[in-house]
Specification:
about 270 residues; eight-stranded mixed beta sheet; 10 strands; alpha/beta; two-stranded antiparallel ribbon; Collagenase (Catalytic Domain)
Length: about 270
Amino acid sequence: MRPKSTSRARAAAVRALPLAALLLTAPTACGEPAAGQPPFAPPVRFAESSTPAAPLRSTRPAPTPVTYPADGGNRWQVAAAEPGRGRGGGHVLRYRVAVERDIAGLPVAGFAADITRILSDPRGWTAAGTLGFRRVGPGQSADFTIYLATPGTRDELCQDVPDGYTSCRNGDRVVLNVARWVRGVPRYGASLATYRTYMVNHEVGHRLGHGHERCPGRGRPAPVMQQQTLGLHGCTANALPYLDGDRYTGPSGAYDDPIPPREGARRR
């Protein structure tokens, strides 16, 4: 049986915490473990998009190469609202999905469908039954926005130590670096799809108030709030907040891992 770092009793205690407290605490900058709450970045410029959400299908055409510049223009396309009422019970958080317009080969509808699938996973943040997510569209009120940004725009939105490599959470902005979405990280030990799931759950976890955690023991799964982008420290890759029905955590804290160098544009 796989050991867990929390008991069901502790998981129940975590679920009993006031949701407002979870939404207002936690370090946000995944590229700088010691950073506190960074200031908000300048306003973003959205482009209205009426493209309907793409349904998930069992067969898809051959993928188009994803290309992007090192520095984008900080202009965005916003995905349409998801059909239905979202997933999860209790307090429902509304989120918006935006893709920077300089990113080619990755339609906003397809990216939004991936985000919604990850946040709807029964092993994700809704597993406790006290929280739900619903994707809203352009012009609708949102509790937070998930951005897929070029490395340079990532630095503008995060307002932390600029590294162009990591992703971050800055206030109500969950910023995913397109370089990591497309390339992943070396020595992760799992598929790119697993890493993408980790990216989303880790940064959304910061929006929910969770701070960084460390590996609970060699050979065990890494907590989703561990900075797995920078190193696993003896743990194995894990993208999910809940394992075997329990909230899976590790000791609070972060490692002093170096951040790899900024990458350039990806071209055809």
